[in-house]
Amino acid sequence: MKVEPYALALESPLTTAHDTITERRGFLVTVEHAGVTGIGEAAPLPDWTEDYETCRDALADASEASGRAGALSLLADAPAARHAVSLAYRDADARAQGVPLYRHFAGDDAVDAIPVNATVGDASPAATAAAVREAVDAGFDCVKVKVGVRRLEVDVERLRAVREAAPDVTLRVDANEAWERSTARRALEALADLDVALVEQPLAASDLAGHAALRGRGVDVALDESVAAYGLDAALDADAADAVVLKPMALGGPDRTVDAGRRARAAGVSPIVTTTFDAVHARTAAVHAAAALAPLSACGLATADALAEDLAPDPAPVERGRIAVPQGKGNGVPTPLGE
Ligand SMILES: [Mg+2]
Predict the structure, then answer these.
(1) Which of 27, 149, 211, 298 is 20 to 30 A removed from 85 (C-alpha atoms)?
(2) What global pTM score does this model have?
(3) What distance in angstroms lies between residue 328's CA and the mean position of ligand 1's atoms?
(4) How far is the CA of 2 from the centre of ligand 1 (A)?
(5) What is the pLDDT of residues 41-64, one digit of tens each?
């Protein structure tokens, strides 16, 4: 197993709960397996995965282990590192089988494309509406608007402006844990009036009961931070969500994402696959994980633009609000040498 660090400049700074980052740092993992080469990626992001140093040390330990099972067994507490090793081996498995990665997971049914949403950040009502209109003009029929930075009344004003500018778009909002229960109840009334389809993580990640109580008010409730912090089973056991956001880097690999998506769906909960602003290998693997779970509603996979540079040409670019699923062998990312 070979482990190589990478650093890629972000198009604009990304603010997390921990700090503000200007580059995305991670690791490429290469394995020789079943007579072929497989490549995986770890893109650690504190809040969602272990930190960079923990990931680096975990990969160093795993590279000393003998074989796949030995390596994976060391990575239970390092989901980004596990993502890289798992993806590298699955990429090799699929290449050896001669099938695209999603068909390695899901069998014979071919999937052409995955619908994806655009994401619009916090801005004034006019700027928010203009950004949504731009996304709709670019072919997106689902847009997610970040809320919760401003007072609820201002967010409602923003969404009203969006509705006037884009009457037909499927609208989602992501509050990233911003609201108290009473604010969330008022928010859902307003969101239902504006035909918002889904609200993501309105309450604190720990408040599963609060999320459960918000369901059935005309707006679907999705959990994201709760799933990363407490796991899918806690969310399902609490009946806390209509949909769950599944981030392969936070879950520990595309294999775990496919498993989680199947378990969610079996419980009547819709999976939504997203990235954590990863480089091309992990983003493409997330597309394959989504394809293995298809059909899905719009996924948060249109994140390549967050990076100012990348590790290889993108085999899965967004076109008119959809990503065509790569149909080559394995993950389908061309190597820099042009394999
Ligand atoms: Mg979210």
Answers:
(1) 298
(2) 0.96
(3) 30
(4) 32
(5) 999 999 899 999 999 999 999 999
